[in-house]
Amino acid sequence: MRQIFLDTETTGLYPDQGDRVIEIGCVELFNRKLTGKTLHLYLNPDRDSHEEALRIHGITTEFLRDKPRFAAVADEFLDFVSDAELIIHNAPFDLGFLNKELSLLGRPPLKDFVSGVLDTLVMAKEMFPGKRNSLDALCSRLEVDNSGRSLHGALLDAELLADVYINMTRGQDALLMESSSADEPGVVLEHVDLQTLTLAVISANEQELAAHATVLTELDKSSGAKTTWRTHA
Fold first, then answer.
1. Which of 50, 54, 96, 164 has the most CB atoms in a 10 Å sphere around its CB?
2. How far apart are CA 55 and CA 70, in angstroms?
């Protein structure tokens, strides 16, 4: 169960109008554990960022001038995310930009390389209807420390999203069973065939049966002999 938290920064809002990706951040989760593996890329977009976008991420044209273009790192990026489930906050935005970058290289869309995409913004709207569900709002609500986030950054935001997602899905831990095998540490079994389990049947002893009968007698007295247990037992 390999998952990749992904975020991008861009020159603007509209890939179909020439805006480009300038930063990609990826963080790997395996069997609900952060592995420490990340991918962080700055990209030369061959254009300036819009003023509104620059105010958000602070990544200048001068800083990006000597960075590689997407074409030079496309294979590195695709190798990192290949066959994983992508977890993205407001996925259509990032996917729209990445698919545009891939299409400019004559490559198929990102969905052809990954096992699926999960949008945490959709999850958050279902969990917290009517509330603000930006990444900052979720960090505050779920007590994830985002004090170091003065500007948007793809890798930092991907790391924060990982913490947010783990907190949003923490209740699922009770549904997972971890293997104790020394050869496969951390393996998670998501499905258990209950038909293979044999459950012991323990019958009540005489003392317990007598106590139960006494309780039913008291219930008969208070209910006018209408005890439901005797009717349906």
1. 164
2. 23
Q: Which of 57, 89, 152, 191 is catalytic?
A: 152
Is residue 191 flagged as an active site residue?
Answer: no
- Per the CB < 8 A criterion, the answer to whether 95 and 117 are in contact is yes
Q: pTM of the entire structure?
A: 0.72
The amino acid that residue 228 corresponds to is T
| pLDDT value of position 204 | 75
How many CA atoms does the CB half-sphere of 103 hold within 13 Å? 12
For the chain, percent of residues with pLDDT exceeding 70: 79
Residue with the larger pLDDT of the pair 135 and 211: 135
Q: Is the pLDDT of residue 176 over 70?
A: no
Quick one: how far is CA 214 from the chain centroid? 54
Residue with tokens 């061959």, as numbered in its chain = 46
